[in-house]
Design brief:
Shape: elongated
Radius of gyration: 29 Å
Order of helices and strands: HHHHHHHHEEHEEHHH
Number of strands: 4
Number of domains: 2
Strand order of the largest sheet: 1-2
Mean pLDDT: 77
Amino acid sequence: MNWEEFLKPTKLKLGLFVLFLIVDVIVFVTGLFLEGIRIRTCNIDTAYTIFLRIMSNIITVFWGLPFYMMSNLSALSFIPSIIILGLFLIFFAIYWYVFACFITWLYDNRRGKKSKIVFICFILALIIISTIVMFQTNPPQFDSSVCYKQSLEYRRFANNCESLCKDAQSSGNADDAVKFCCAQMTGDTDFNRNGKVDAIDSESMKGFKVCENAIYCMNMFSCKNGTVEINPAKCLEILCTAWNNVYNNTDTATRKVKELIQGPGDCTLSPDENWFTYYGFDSLHC
């Protein structure tokens, strides 16, 4: 191969060069869109989605290489941003021009046996490398129990619980503690979109699970008020005390607490992971 001839500009090479630049930008923008979809669907993999991910990564690893190089350069904080941008643009241009030259070379030698072998080897290498990269950096997920952590609604609820906890900590007021204990996640809680109410792991109560439609601040998040942790056991005490002070009647207070904390939800919880029965809400009497 004559490298001078290989790299010599022609109308076809320049046309392909511009085309590749346009396609690369489109692929990059589309990749951001598809990533948003994967987050909203919790990135749960089936055989079909794994196949789609393999095919998409064949494209992404190749077309997105300039952006991948840019992200690695950006991690080097000691290099000024303007230099990183300059290096990126230089690499970006060289990368696609060389590839345009390569495609032109294949086109000019398309009838030769050698070009066909090179092209086949190139495609096979691209498939193998992209598949290995995908499974090494982003392995398939089959466990839908972690899906809720990617939900925008869940993150908003988590932030609200954190705010309520801080209010309870700063004020020391029983009313603020009551708000934390009673706060329940509402809206669409079918995190993995399977049409069922599933059990998910509690973030604060290790070994316990909660139903998707019965997520409270107290059974999902840790909150300490001084040396006292406001967990379900403490919440039971706080709620009974608060409503006894209001009604001055244990039966009425009990009914009120049961109205606020109605049950463990509509999923199936085994006895050793059921927070509702473990902390005595099923046999509640203030």
